[in-house]
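step=encode ok
step=design start
structure_in=
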C-alpha cells in the first residue's frame, strides 16, 4: 500500500469519526423552528453526491473508511485530470463526433469546468452509503411486473410513427426546458449526477415551496386536509399534499404527468410517491422516498438521500436562453430530408 493511499484512508477514517461526533453534538441541539412550532426546513440545500442510485452487487450497504477513500480519491483524480485547460490549438472533432457522451451529442460536450456532480459519498445518519436505494435490502430497484413490460413494449412499437425531429413535442422535455434533467424536480427528488443539484425551500403554515435550480422548476406542497385533483388532471410534479408527523414533514404525491418518467419508466394513474423531510441538524436535511405503483413494480421501493446546507446563492437557470435553438434543430432536420429526397448528388451549394 502506498504512503499516499495510507494517508487517504487515515484521512477518511478521521473524517468519518469527526462526522459522527459532530452529528452526535448536533442531535443534542434543538433544530430551529418556525413560529407555528414546526422544524424550520428553509434555506438552500444540495443533494449532489457520487453515491449511485443502485448498489453495486459486490458492496455492502455501508462503505468502509478504505472504500470511502478509494471512491472519493478516484473522483478527486477525475476532477483534477478533467479540469485541465483545453488546448486552443486542438483540431476539430471527427465527423460523427469524438465518441464522448453528454449534452452536445457526441461532438465533445461540456468540459469539466461546468460539471458539479458532487465529490463526496452520501452519509446518512452517520453511515457512508453504497447506494441511495435502501429498500429493498439489495439496494437495487425491484423488477417490473409483466403488465408494465407490456406497456413499455407497446410504447416502443408506437414510437416509430413519428421521427424524433418531426416536431417540438417529440424532443425530450429537458431539451424543451419543461422539466429538469434527471429527476431533480421529482418526486422523488434525486441527484442528476451532472450539475445544479441545488434547492431553495420556503415554508409557511399552509405551504412548502421547493425551487429546483435545474430548469428553475418549482413544487408547491399544500399542507392540511388533502383535497385531491381529479384523476385526469396530471400536472408536472404531480399533486402534492403534506402533513406533519412529529418533526417529519410527510408528503404524498399522485397525479404525476404521464410524460414525467422516472429512470425511463412512465408513471401510471396508480403511482404514489411518499416523501419524508426531517431536519437532522443545522447542516443536514434527511430526505426519504418510497415509490408505490402495484401496476408497475413487484414491490414498493425507495431510498434515503442527505441534503446538505448550501452556503451560497441559487441563481436563475436560464434554460437555453428561451430555447431559441429549437428552430435550428427542426430546420436542420427538414434540410436533411430535402437533401435525401433530391438524391445523393445534391447537397449544399
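sequence_out=
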Amino acid at each position: 500500500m502506498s504512503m499516499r493511499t495510507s494517508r487517504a484512508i487515515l484521512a477518511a477514517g478521521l473524517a468519518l469519526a469527526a462526522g459522527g461526533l459532530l452529528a452526535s453534538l448536533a442531535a443534542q441541539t434543538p433544530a430551529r423552528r418556525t413560529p407555528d412550532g414546526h422544524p424550520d426546513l428553509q434555506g438552500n440545500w444540495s443533494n449532489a453526491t457520487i453515491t449511485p442510485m443502485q448498489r453495486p452487487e459486490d458492496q455492502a450497504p455501508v462503505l468502509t473508511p478504505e472504500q470511502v477513500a478509494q471512491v472519493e480519491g478516484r473522483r478527486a483524480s477525475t476532477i483534477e485530470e478533467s479540469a485541465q485547460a483545453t488546448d486552443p490549438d486542438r483540431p476539430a472533432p471527427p465527423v460523427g463526433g469524438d465518441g464522448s457522451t453528454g449534452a452536445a451529442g457526441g461532438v465533445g460536450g461540456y468540459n469539466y469546468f461546468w460539471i458539479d456532480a458532487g465529490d463526496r459519498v452520501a452519509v446518512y445518519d452517520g453511515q457512508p452509503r453504497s447506494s441511495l436505494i435502501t429498500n429493498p435490502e439489495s439496494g437495487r430497484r425491484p423488477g417490473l411486473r409483466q403488465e408494465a413490460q407490456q406497456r413499455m413494449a407497446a410504447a416502443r412499437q408506437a414510437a416509430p410513427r413519428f421521427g424524433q425531429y418531426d416536431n417540438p413535442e417529440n424532443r425530450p422535455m429537458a431539451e424543451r426546458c419543461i422539466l429538469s434533467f434527471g429527476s431533480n424536480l421529482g418526486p422523488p427528488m434525486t441527484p442528476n449526477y451532472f450539475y445544479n443539484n441545488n434547492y431553495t425551500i420556503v415554508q409557511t403554515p399552509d405551504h412548502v415551496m421547493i425551487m429546483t435550480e435545474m430548469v428553475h422548476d418549482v413544487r408547491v406542497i399544500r399542507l392540511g386536509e388533502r383535497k385531491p385533483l381529479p384523476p385526469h388532471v396530471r400536472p408536472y410534479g404531480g399533486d402534492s399534499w403534506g402533513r406533519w408527523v412529529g418533526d417529519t414533514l410527510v408528503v404524498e404525491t399522485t397525479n404525476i404527468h404521464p410524460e414525467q418518467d422516472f429512470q425511463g419508466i412512465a408513471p401510471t394513474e396508480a403511482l404514489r410517491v411518499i416523501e419524508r423531510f426531517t431536519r437532522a441538524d443545522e447542516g443536514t436535511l434527511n430526505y426519504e422516498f418510497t415509490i408505490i405503483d402495484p401496476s408497475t413494480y413487484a414491490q414498493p421501493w425507495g431510498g434515503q438521500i442527505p441534503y446538505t446546507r448550501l452556503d451560497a446563492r441559487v441563481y436563475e437557470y436560464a434554460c437555453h436562453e428561451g430555447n431559441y435553438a429549437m428552430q435550428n434543430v427542426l430546420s436542420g432536420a427538414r434540410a436533411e430530408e430535402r437533401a435525401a429526397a433530391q438524391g445523393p448528388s445534391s447537397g449544399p451549394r
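step=design ok
step=annotate ok -> The longest helix spans residues 3-27.
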